[in-house]
Queue: 2 jobs
Job 1
Amino acid sequence: MHSEQHPHVVIVGGGFGGLWAARALARSPVRVTLIDRVNHHLFQPLLYQVATAGLSMPDIAAPLRHILRRQNNATVLLGEVTTIDRNSRRLHCTNGNELSYDYLIVASGARHAYFGHDDWAAHAPGLKTLDDALLIRRRVLTAFERAEAETDPERRAAWLNFAVIGAGPTGVELAGTLAEIARHTLRREFRRADPAAARVLLVEAGPRVLPALPESLSAKAAAQLQHLGVEVHTGRAVSAVDSSGITLGEEHIAARTVLWAAGVAASPLGRCLDVPLDKAGRVAVEDDLSVPGHPEIFVVGDLASRMQDGKPVPGVAPAAKQMGTHAAKVIRARLAGATTKPFRYVDVGSLATIGRMAAVADLGRVRLSGMIAWWFWLLIHILFLIGFRSRLIVLINWSWSYWTYQRHARIIVGTTRDDAEPAS
Amino acid sequence: MHSEQHPHVVIVGGGFGGLWAARALARSPVRVTLIDRVNHHLFQPLLYQVATAGLSMPDIAAPLRHILRRQNNATVLLGEVTTIDRNSRRLHCTNGNELSYDYLIVASGARHAYFGHDDWAAHAPGLKTLDDALLIRRRVLTAFERAEAETDPERRAAWLNFAVIGAGPTGVELAGTLAEIARHTLRREFRRADPAAARVLLVEAGPRVLPALPESLSAKAAAQLQHLGVEVHTGRAVSAVDSSGITLGEEHIAARTVLWAAGVAASPLGRCLDVPLDKAGRVAVEDDLSVPGHPEIFVVGDLASRMQDGKPVPGVAPAAKQMGTHAAKVIRARLAGATTKPFRYVDVGSLATIGRMAAVADLGRVRLSGMIAWWFWLLIHILFLIGFRSRLIVLINWSWSYWTYQRHARIIVGTTRDDAEPAS
């Protein structure tokens, strides 16, 4: 079944795109090698919950080799791909490994981007990996601790101001959850600082929050955010970020904690492919998701750029899964001498959670908001988590949080080696 | 109840000693300030489970200010004490805070020690904090990943050799669990390396494992370790540790993962007290646990050195709790103009777990080993965990691990900034 004679499919990246591609090749006459820089598949839609101390890391992440343990034709390797040689069909990894492929699926995703302001990164961490989430958790929880230890009222206020830049789904989730932490979770736990006096600012350069959703839902989301205590600033671009806070136009706002949710750029691996990239660094793929001129190389997920009916296919989990599955199908068809239909993204709707009992959902003809959208969001996210154990534990943690307003993962680690903690 | 007029009790350290002292002062006419370098109380007896990916961090740690939220006379501060001025009764913290005290309870515990070989620290991490546990987890899981990526058989074997130095309770727990991970948890997940070929060495300079227990139980523990697949080397001192492995006498053993469980030294805060210290850096305390010449300063827990009936009071959780409670009682008595009996440690017995269904227990007249000792250990450790939620989640995680042989927290984080990852 997985003899050395079978064609070798190398998949770079174990996110939704890469993992779904690997699984879709389980019964095919190929050898599959999945390479990732980390050892786990991450359920990214719930990453903000780890950053805000509602869930632990293993609740939303599982080792890739554990997920694929029964798929005998699949090998998982920990490593980072540095170069891709399209002519010899080989790739090189940081750990010294060299791999040759017959088919290559690149699914290395995206990172957050600072639009030319890389110096902002130290002051405004973004959220893409579990390491990012632990850093944000540490910054947020430490800010309240610093406020409690601070005796000067002005400096204390700066520790209690939180600015979230960017009002896409991640920014909205972070801002809504921060407001809940300040107003409910930490109530009665501080003796000098008053967490309820914290200000949470959500700053968006565009005209409305959740710009990917219909306008009516954006308005409902903004209202729910304000109800939770978030100050929503739309139509205002950030002109500076430093250790003291942010500048909006001419106005400087003191905020010792700034979180970045404003933009993503594709993985730098796109550049190794030596094909045209769009301005976000993504690879424009053919209608079978292969790279122009190289039918044996596929790009799926956030790294792929694809227009459909005049609109770009969005960088969301369902699109990455559909693309990964499609690339696998194309490979199977080619091996069987058959052809496939062009890739078509099936829009399953958009969901964004805002906070306790607050969410919006766009399901095509049906639009939901408030409590019913929140319950729908909860159900969907628990169903899509990988592994029975994770589902059960997350359900217990959420029920506990719901009734007690507590967040169980309020553990600060890594303080001894914080990278860019602003000096006080 | 907690007016500014009340005497100020400052407690340094939120481990078993410090937290139990704070709680015992809940109804006393004092103001309590608890300072710790980290924001959480850690249930240290289960720390090895976090290091070996069986439990997540929040399962065994809870924020100190959450634990003390209803104790209105207590303030919790995050900070590290740098100096103690006994004459002016003031202490200074790294965050710039200065505190004056009427009573001081120092409960800053111990760290692991390398007996003058501090250069071994980078190659052989010890286990005292959650950061230590995440580092060990990363080293152990990465070693199997490196073995899978390695093509040279000799180098692969070095990645599959694990050496644990020191056969006290922590060393025994780590070695037993590593053997279980290699033989059961990772089975069928690797395609090139065979985790079952891993060697786990437990090295002890003294004549037997678990030297604090009676000889008969040491022998039973050694037999159980060997049954689990651990190579037990007693009576052999380590003469060198580097990135390639360890040296026992003249013999070099290649092992890319070395864990240190061989010794502890008291917290450096003992030196700030300017009193005689024993050779492990501990403070010899009076029979009310105060410091000679300074009845207003108490030292409790692992930092205190106290002889009782010709034997030292051991550095274990029950002793720290009893000392913390006693120091609080002495303060209450002094405020009421009363006296207290000298401190007496009540030995509640010793328990050490070895692995699945393997443990030993010394309960005075009753000695247990094997399955019954393991069930007893499980029961005790779940009962003593703080918080209903933790107990429930740990019970679920353990039941799941027990039936599936899986360990759910197999998540590597922090790889991008590993401090001392030996180059390959």
Job 2
Amino acid sequence: MYSYMTKPKAYLFDVFGTIVDWRNGVSDVSQRFFDAKNLEENPHTFADAWRAKYQPAMEKIRSGNRGYFPLDILHRENLDELLAQLDLTNAFSEEETQELNRAWEQLPPWADSVCGLEAIKQNAIIAPCSNGSIALMTRLAKFGSLPWDCILGAEIAQNYKPHPDAYSKSVSALGLKPHEVMMVAAHNSDLVAAKACGLMTGFIARPTEHGAGQTIDLEPTEDWDVVISEIGQLAQ
Amino acid sequence: MYSYMTKPKAYLFDVFGTIVDWRNGVSDVSQRFFDAKNLEENPHTFADAWRAKYQPAMEKIRSGNRGYFPLDILHRENLDELLAQLDLTNAFSEEETQELNRAWEQLPPWADSVCGLEAIKQNAIIAPCSNGSIALMTRLAKFGSLPWDCILGAEIAQNYKPHPDAYSKSVSALGLKPHEVMMVAAHNSDLVAAKACGLMTGFIARPTEHGAGQTIDLEPTEDWDVVISEIGQLAQ
């Protein structure tokens, strides 16, 4: 796979969608909260609606209209907004709402993620370059046994992907040059931004990230350095 | 051990001296470099002299007289200064000097460190709160199989211990309050600073950190929350 290129000294991974299944994870946790209150919300619709507020919330920060706040805060603001839209503002106590917001710390890894990361880790540094905070990524790693060497990404950069700082400052934090590092993601747009910063790129399709009817990111849209079907293939 | 206190949700560890044996590690790597050039420097004297430049270099940053630079840079500046003092400026090539500077990434853990950290990690977050950079701490962890959940400390805070930011910003990055976190160190001065920030404190003596004639930090100098003789005792 690497015959034509330098083997990366470090691999940075997108996490939500690439390493873990956020949609079923958020749905499972939300379902438990709805059941406890005899609410009949569809948990997948709820997860999708919560996630739909993700990019607009980060865009305020990326555009410079708001200082950096960790994703846990944005998730909570988005949750409050969503609950209000669904007339559920008073359905949960403050403590319960805080706990529901921790759904993002309890997302199951895709079946190939953990063993694949373990294999890559034998010969290179592995780290998330996610929009999740250090706190979120740390707890998510403990939940799913993700064997990161360190946590990089938005909080290190104090800005959100796909802002160039998120990639460049993560690379700098390792004392490496962009061409020594590969960004791995299930989202073509993430790789477009990483490539523009000089990183190598690896694409993996996650065709059910958005559920059965997914229409985006089913295929690589550019000539990425590698295209894999399981994370562990990067170790070969 | 914890009957009178809340069990910490996270443990932050000093690393140089507390988790790893920096003096023998730096000495071993330096010895290889001296041998290759038929130099008869005493490697322990060399390690001690290099380390002696550590606090003054950080003090310029803590005092606000210099912006934050990662410890790898300070180590390199101190190495160049030391080699000059020993009339060894031209003894090593630039590439060799860079490699010698990486001695700090190759420090052996004390015998109880790895298994102790593994045990604590089952029920709490573990992270370094060191003056080492993310790059340095990440590579040191790979060298010694230190199973950190994430890397905190000076680079997260953009300031060096014992400045309060180094502790407070590390705690904040976990989304925790200071009273939920314990700082563990072999240096009483580190714990004085952590305690002032509201953290719990744990002391472990490392009586040979500075060699056989060590005179400091042989005993706890204050009534720390816990005093241990092996890291794994914190898991009990």
